[in-house]
Amino acid sequence: MSRLLQWLRVGFDRVTIYLPIILAAVLALGTYWLVRNAPRLMEPKPPAPVTHDPDYFMRGFVVKRFFPNGELRSELRGKEGRHFPDTDTMEIDEVRMRTISPEGLVTHATANRGLSNGDASEVQLFGNAIVVRDAARTPSGEEIPRLEFRGDFLHAYTDTERVTSNKPVTLMRGDDRFTADSMDYDKISGVANLKGRVRGVIQPAQPAGKKQ
Fold it and tell me: Is residue 13, in this structure, part of any structural domain at all?
C-alpha cells in the first residue's frame, strides 16, 4: 500500500511539473481554433461607379428659385421628373417654365420634354419647344415687343436670358418673322445671330400713335 501511495505521489509531482506546459498548449490550440473559425472582417470595397440611372422620381412637381430679396426668379413644372446623379440633371416630361428678369420681363417656355441642370439655370427643350418673352413697357415708356422662339429644340439659359439652337428655328419679334437653320439670341446685347438658310418678313413700321 505504501508503494502505491509513493508511486501516485511521484506521478502527481511529475504531472504538476508539466501542468503549465500542458495548459499553455491547450490555450494555444484554443486560440488557433478561434482564429480559424472567427468571422472575417469585411474588406473595404471600392465605391461603385455612378451609372446613368435615375435615383429618384417626381410627379406633378414645381421647382422655384428666388432672388436674394425673396422675389420669384423662375418656376419649373413638369408632369414627371427623373433625376440622374451622374450628371446632376433632371429629365422632365411636359415641361413648363416661367422666368422673371430683374427688370420684370416675363418669359414662358414649354416643350414635350426638358432636360434641366441641377439649379435649373439651363433647360434644354425637346419637341414642340416654345419660348415666349411677353411684351412690356420700360419705366421710361419704351415699348418692348413680344419675342417668340419656336423649334424642335431650344436651349434656354434662365440666368443670362439667352436662347440657342443648332436646329431650324422660327423667331417672331412683334409682327416680324424670321426662320433659320440655327440661332443664338443674347438678351444682354439684344442680338439674334441667325445662321444657315435665313428667311425673314419685316412688317412696315406703323405711324406713331396709330394702332394696327
Answer: yes
Q: Are strands 72-84 and 56-66 parallel, antiparallel or unpaired?
A: antiparallel
pTM score, whole prediction: 0.72
Amino acid code (one letter) for 211: K
**Segments in the chain below pLDDT 50:** 211-212
CA-angle at 173, arms to 170 and 179, nearest 5°:
20
Please give the Cα distance from 169 to 151 (Å, whole number): 5
**Shared-domain flag, residues 81 and 1:** no
Taking a C-beta distance cutoff of 8 angstroms, is the pair 82, 98 a contact?
no
Could you tell me if 76 and 162 lie in one domain?
Answer: yes
CA distance 159 to 188: 11
Domain encompassing residue 7? 1-37
Q: HSE-up of 124 (CA within 13 Å, CB side)?
A: 11
Per the structure, the count of domains in the chain is: 2
Q: Give the pLDDT score at 212.
A: 44
Closest-CA residue to 206 (of 178, 175, 171, 172): 175
